[in-house]
Specification:
The protein is an alpha+beta fold. It folds into 3 domains: about 60 residues, 3-methyladenine DNA Glycosylase II, Chain A, domain 3 (Orthogonal Bundle), CATH 1.10.15.40; about 70 residues, no CATH class; about 110 residues, no CATH class. The protein contains 10 helices and 9 strands. Strands 5-9-8-7-6 form a 5-stranded antiparallel β-sheet. It has a 4-stranded antiparallel β-sheet with strand order 1-2-3-4. Bound molecules: iron/sulfur cluster (SF4).
Length: about 270
């Protein structure tokens, strides 16, 4: 039987260091199994992963393993996690609205401004929207958090979250990518942010852009951007901050995925 993304992921270091060129070990495992990426691109392969190299290379040659399968496995795991939860009890805490359709419970909430209906086995987008099937994993993780705290308005760094040291490098890389993308063009960033309904905030005295995004209810993200000042040899910089309650709603990996989604929209990837 072909090795799956989860088979490989279990054997990777799961530090999300980014040295393979991808933001997370999950993304790398997916690329290897589904897209034929070279396993050796991870320079930190533990022996357990190296042992799979031959079998994975052989299944890549045969074209075994399909993208659909990877998503199906991840969804299966999340569906099992979600199944026993009582959506009615969770709705308020998650900033969602409870509903039922033919006896099937669902939660309605806003995801990057789109109103989604999240059933236990289906995510329903508004007509005309282009669904990203991987969003479902994030949304189910959000629901499975059973979070209920209201944002405090106190901003914290990703690095200050427990056990984030190894993954913080990924966020720093994403911040740099964003800063480089909008260097010399703060006006464009403002327009893009406005299109994503960012709210102005006064969190820094000298940032060229500062705005709060609400990609998910209860999970605000603050973006600070300082444009480049070439004459002073000052490169553009971006910092992303989270409300102090964020770890009650998303795990570290889901948070990085959410930031990536925000960046993709800002940079119109
Ligand atoms: S290089 Fe880092 S992020 Fe990539 S798979 Fe290896 S440990 Fe994970």
């Amino acid at each position: 039987m072909a090795h799956t993304v989860l088979d490989l992921l279990k054997r990777l270091p799961r530090t999300n260091c980014g040295d393979c060129g991808l933001p997370t070990c999950m993304a790398f495992a997916t690329q290897v199994i589904k897209e034929g990426e070279d396993l050796a691109k991870c320079p930190h392969l533990p022996p357990a992963a190296q042992e799979l190299a031959g079998a994975i290379s052989s299944q890549q040659e045969k074209g075994e393993g399909r993208r659909r399968e990877s998503l199906a496995i991840s969804l299966e795991v999340m569906h099992a996690k979600i199944a026993p939860l009582n959506f009615r009890d969770l709705a308020d805490g998650l900033g969602a609205v409870y509903g039922e359709e033919d006896g099937r419970p669902y939660l309605t909430f806003s995801f990057f401004g789109q109103t989604l209906l999240v059933f236990k086995d289906e995510v329903r987008y508004p007509p005309g929207a282009a669904p990203n099937p991987w969003d479902a994993i994030l949304l189910y993780n959000f629901i499975a958090s059973c979070g209920k705290e209201l944002p405090t308005g106190t901003w914290i760094t990703y690095q200050s979250l427990p056990n984030s040291v190894s993954k913080a490098k990924t966020l720093a890389r994403l911040e740099k990518e964003l800063a480089d993308h909008f260097a010399g063009n703060a006006g464009r960033l403002r327009r893009q942010a406005a299109a994503l309904h960012s709210e102005p905030v006064q969190a820094s005295e000298n940032a060229d852009f500062q705005g709060v995004f609400l990609p998910l209810p209860r999970v605000p993200i603050l973006l600070l951007f300082w444009d480049a000042e070439p004459e002073e040899d000052f490169p553009a910089q971006a910092h992303i901050l989270f409300d102090s309650t964020v770890s009650g709603f998303l795990d570290l990996e889901s948070l990085l995925f959410l930031v990536e989604q925000l960046m993709d929209r800002l940079m119109q990837k």
